[in-house]
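Re: weekly structure request thread

Next one in the queue (281 aa):
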Amino acid sequence: MASAYHSNFIETSINAAVSFLKESVFSDEYASKKGFLQSIDPRMKLATSAIFLLVVLFSGSITVIIYFYAVSLALAYLSKINLGFFLKRTWIFMPLFSIFIAIPALFSIFTPGETLTSFEVMGLHLIITRQGFFAASLFVMRVITSVSFVILLSITTRHFELLKVLRIFGVPQMFVMVLGMCYRYIYLFAQVIENTFVAIKSRAGTDLRYKSGRHVVAWNIASLWYRSYRLNEEVYNAMLSRGYDGESVIFNDLRMRLADWLWGLAVAVMCAVPIILKCKY
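Done, posted below.
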């Protein structure tokens, strides 16, 4: 009974992890929708996203950062992105990790200042300061907002268009090529994990002993490394045979329209509002 539960837990965990990976990285269905950001030229979209990021990173006002976070949520809604999907992608990993980093900054040991609240833990008297709470909140909201704009850019733009725009903005060819290869290999890697797990389950069943389980895992690691080595040469030769020269190719030429320039103007106005209002907190 315990073995069956353990096997079901592992199977469920692997399937959930692979499914989450696919949904997080490969979300071309959102890029294909007729939403607001999907209609913006990729060059203007990248430029305005960079402006949003710079304003958020250099802003020292949590009010301003919350304002831009609200803008990101509004853009997600207008771009027909499921808010549950969007929030899960923007609050997991980096933002969650940033919360753990920011926790020490709350306490007077690291950030002296006015006492906000105090309590005792295992005989230790801990004090949370107003300055520490503000610094931690600012850091966490800055990370969440920055990640939100990056996620918006990635899921509303087809990956080949994004790679093309990166080259237009002068990003080195080698970096763009490696990025494109990694994007494709992640999908292949997710498929290999699924197929390997199904193969092990179909041949060895669910009841594997510790020693035999180690042999199975070790063999699959070695097999995956060998397959990756062979795939490297095969993919490279296939790309060369099809005329690939390191540059991303798209079927439709990029054209700036009036709506794109108006969006750029609107972003400039949105970024100027906090400066005009002189938000300090």
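The first strand starts at residue 115 and ends at 121. Residues 172-250 form one domain.
Next request, please.
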